[in-house]
Amino acid sequence: MTVKGINVRSLLFAGFVASYLMYFIDNYFAGFLGLFGAFPGTGSIWWMIEHHIDGIIFALIFAWPLMYKLLPGGGWLKGLIFGIIWTVALAITSLIAGALGATAFEQMPMALKPFVSSLLLHSAWGFFLGVLYTPPKEREVVAESRM
């Protein structure tokens, strides 16, 4: 099913699986080189549901046709670059919002180790997102625009 140039089924699948793999990598490598183990509240089912919903919503930005076409390379490289851009944008947003007194961002310290963990995890999320997401074929987008 294609909506506004986005393959919705592929987006849902890729966003969900990439989010789970991000969580799995964090748990598997927890403590490795003093990194990872960054996921708070993993014992809560509601936190996990929220994490997967976020992964799908943020994957929507990746799958947006303009963004997808702007990113260079094939699917995996597009995803990897998107994951890196996403992490840098998150760090900048956290820095600015925290400096302006936003209490929600006080819980997100961006010291070197948490930043490196976040960068590696979001890069993995983006990589898997890029591998798993299949954009719609050109004829599907043309057919959708005729409706």
Number of strands: 2
Number of domains: 1
Uncertain segments: none
Query: How would you spell out the order of helices and strands?
Result: EEHHHHHH
Q: What level of helicity do the residues show?
A: 55-70%
Q: How many separate helices? A: 6
Mean pLDDT: 83
Query: Which structural class matches the secondary elements?
Result: mainly alpha
**Largest beta-sheet characterization:** 2 strands, antiparallel
Q: How far apart are the termini?
A: 13 Å
Strand % is under 5%
The side-by-side strand order for the widest beta sheet comes to: 1-2
Question: What is the 3D form?
Answer: globular
The radius of gyration over CA amounts to: 16 Å
Protein described:
This protein has 147 residues and is mainly α. The protein has one domain. Helix content is 69%, strand content 3%. It is built from six helices and two strands. The protein has helices spanning 8-28, 45-63, 65-70, 75-99, 112-132, 138-146, and strands at 2-3, 6-7. A two-stranded antiparallel sheet has the order 1-2. A hairpin with a 2-residue loop joins β1 and β2 (6-7). α4 (75-99) packs antiparallel against α5. The longest helix is centred in the middle third of the chain and has 25 residues, at 75-99. The chain is globular and about 45 Å long. The two termini are 13 Å apart. The mean pLDDT is 83.
